[in-house]
Structures are given as C-alpha cells and as structure tokens.
Design goal:
Strand 15 and strand 16 form a beta hairpin. This protein starts with 13 loop residues before the first strand and ends with a helix. Helix 1 packs across helix 2. The chain is 21% helix and 27% strand. Strands 11, 12, 13, 14, 17, 18, 19, 20 and 21 form a 9-stranded mixed sheet that branches. Strands 6-5-8-9 form a 4-stranded antiparallel sheet. The protein has a two-stranded antiparallel ribbon with strand order 1-2. With 291 residues, it is of the alpha+beta class. The chain has helices spanning 50-56, 62-70, 137-141, 164-171, 191-199, 237-243, 275-282, 284-290, and strands at 14-16, 25-27, 37-38, 47-49, 74-76, 79-80, 87-89, 95-97, 100-101, 106-107, 109-114, 145-146, 155-161, 179-185, 202-204, 210-212, 217-222, 225-230, 249-257, 260-261, 270-272. The protein has 8 helices and 21 strands.
Length: 291
Amino acid sequence: MMINKDKKTTTGKSFKKNNEKTGAKFKSRPDAAPKAKTISFNSQDGVCALYRALSKLSVCSRTAAKEYITGGRVMVNGTIINDMMYSVNLKKDKIKVDGKAVSEKKYQYIAFNKPAGYETSCRASIKSAKTIYELIPFAKANGLNPAGWLDKESRGLIILTNDNAFSDKISGGNSKLAKHYMVKTNADIDEEQIKEFAQGIVITDGTGDSVKTRPCSIKHVGECAYEVTLTQGINRQIRKMFEYFGVKVVDLFRYKIGKLEIADDNEGTFFNIKPEDITGVQTDKQAKKKV
C-alpha cells in the first residue's frame, strides 16, 4: 500500500509508518479529531437484507437491527418494514430509523499506536482502569470503536472506526486477515515446540472454552524474540500459546494488520486512514489492485 508523502494529520508528534520507499510521517494531536469522510459501503450490487443494511450503515449491530425492525422503528421509502429479511437497495432506497435518514454515513478510520498499560475496552467492569480513550478522547466522542483488541500490557497497532461492516472484516469471527506481532519472552522454545506452535495447539478462549488455534507463522529472530503472524483473535492468544510451553511473554508489539504497518516508536499517536488505504487493510488481494 502506497502512502502519499504529503499526507498529514493535525499538529503534534510524528507517527512513522514503516515504508522505506515513501518515508512517510504522520502527525497528530490527541485532542484533535480527524476529518470524517462520507463513503459508500454498499454490497457489490447494492442489494442486501434490511437488518444487514442497518449494520453496514453502522446504525447498530445485526442483533440490535432485528429488534429495531420488529419494533417498527425502521422505514423504507416511507413505509414501516417489520421483516428483517426485506430486500433493500442501498444505492436507491431511502431508509429511516426513528424518523431519521440513515442512507448515508460519515465514516472515520484512524490507526492508533497503543502504549502498554492501557485497556482497549471502556466496559463498565474496567472503569477504574486507564483506557486508550484518555489518549484519544475524540474517538469516544465520535463513536470510534476498536476493530480488534490488544490486551492491557500489549502495544501497537489498533484501528478505530465507526464502520461496523469494516470492523467485522478486520476482527469478526470469520476474518482471516493477517495480524503481525513482535514478541519477546523470558525463555526460548525449542524447534519441536515451534513446529507445534505453528500447527496449532489447544488453549482457552475468552469464555473459558477449549479451542484449537489455527495454523500460524512463527519465526525465531533472536534470543527470546519471535515474529508471530495470526489469522484469528482469541483472547490473549499469543500469551496463552507461549504459556502452553511454560514460557512467559514479556513484551508484545503488533506492528501490522493486513497491509498497514507502523514503526515501533511514537506510542500514543495516531494517523488518518484514507479510503484507498482501507482496501489494502481489508485483503491482500484488494491491496494488490491499488498498488
């Protein structure tokens, strides 16, 4: 993915993207919101079920959309629709929720370099903890949510957006988008353990259920140092995978999601993602068309 050399955000510390060809730098100020862009996120032919349309337009989740529709809160072309499978054309039909038009949405996308010590979530259960929204307060005010997570002690790239459909492509259960990490541990694992790690092992997920990890890539790059690439996002996955071998992760940095890559510096800063950059984030195949 190519980045414009002249691309800038608001004033503040620079946030470098790992791109030797362009040498691009990004500037930010935590209290300054990036400018939103109006973008169309229609399916290829523009037609989908009404409940999916509400999710695509980031009105609500698919589950909530069903309640909105059956509750008589949704109108299509002036008529209340109670059928969640009702077919709509996002390019032509006028959709309203509670009387407000939602056929067009201003989406925002930012890449944030999360420092260790901050929670990604703002759930009530962790109200007393520091969260990333203390560093980028405009994100919470504008309804920008993380597309994927990093635990409190992990660092690196997080994408925040108010586009639910795009978020699903990055971090949904069916997403196989590659996420790349640099990991430091308190001890090395041997070659046989590396092979087992790569083939998949059984760990517990966020609910405590046992699950086998998908095959992944792991490369020993130095003493107690590894590059790991995952295509799934189980709660604390990398930490649990090393713990399986009796090894503790002491530092974890996510430096790349899909085609989007950051350098290991300037923690706590962000940069805007342009619409043409997002295709590169979604799938490698789409990214190649843009390069």
